[in-house]
Amino acid sequence: MTITSIDGPAHISRRSRRDRKVILRGLLFATPAALLLLAIYIIPILVLAGFSLTDYRLGALSWRFTGIDNFTRAFRDPVFLRALTNTLIYAALVIPLGIGLALGVALLVQGRRRSRAFWEAAYFLPVTATLVAMATVWQFLLHPSLGPVNAAIRALGFEPVSFLGQPALLIPTMAIIGIWQVLGFNMVLFLAGLTAIPRDLTEAARLDGARHPIDRFLTVTWPMLGPTTMFVVVTTSISAFKVFEQVAVLTKGRQGSETLLYAIYLEGFEYAETGYAAALTLVFLALVLVLSIGQTFGLDRKVHY
């Protein structure tokens, strides 16, 4: 004999009302964050996309719709193409060296006992400094006649080098400054990742035959640093593509040193080409987005969580 409860429908009704209340409460909690995301990111990007399809100039009272003319103009513009090439070269130097050197420094600092705090502070100091002020210091250090770098070069019997005067050396010189800037931050991230690796794994690898430190690094340390490395690669790549201060302070954007952000700054604020600058900004955002997503998905397959 089957017994049917008379409160079945009522119980289901009460449960559905409770579920609706939970969903409503969740939406209420999420609403402030969603509105903030809408106001700070989504609406500005939509406005930017709208400007990129017009010939609007800063301060103009009227403008006209031009479609994708600004985008086609960008890829015919020799200044933009040179800025894009310079940014790619800069990133190609800063990303691998800024990550590889930071990992090497982290491994060395981790092995210190008494002096570890000193080395952590010393390497992290450039991260806390204002890059505009530090770029001025670098300008003095690299001065062809007054700077200590060229003084050391002369002491070795070589001719002084105009690091900021020769177009072929501008991007490599700024890349060195960029590496110096990201080194401390990346080192701290790698130190955190190294600290989280259980010592039992390293000891087990040593007992299994990995007696050389390089063997233990390749079999244990490097795979366990996968999540940290992926984060460091993405953040360093974004920082490299956002290079601006070095160009603004050291070279003032003279030919041979243009980068994407500086080209956007010139078009938008110096030449008042707001529509064209908006199109360049969208190209820049698309480039960084594709690079970040590609790196994340590419590295995620090799990461051991």
UniProtKB/TrEMBL annotation:
Record-linked InterPro entries: ABC_transporter_permease (IPR051393), MetI-like (IPR000515), MetI-like_sf (IPR035906)
Keyword ATP-binding listed: no
UniProt xrefs under CDD domains: TM_PBP2
Bilayer topology annotation: Multi-pass membrane protein
TM annotation in the entry: 22-51, 88-109, 121-141, 169-197, 217-241, 276-299
Pfam families, per the entry: BPD_transp_1
Source domain of life: Bacteria
Keywords: Cell membrane, Membrane, Transmembrane, Transmembrane helix, Transport
Intracellular or extracellular location(s): Cell membrane
PROSITE patterns in UniProt: ABC_TM1 (PS50928)
Residue ranges of domain ABC transmembrane type-1 in the record: 84-295
Family: Belongs to the binding-protein-dependent transport system permease family.
Family matches, as PANTHER family: ABC TRANSPORTER PERMEASE PROTEIN, INNER MEMBRANE ABC TRANSPORTER PERMEASE PROTEIN YCJO
Protein's recorded name: Carbohydrate ABC transporter permease
Organism: Plastorhodobacter daqingensis
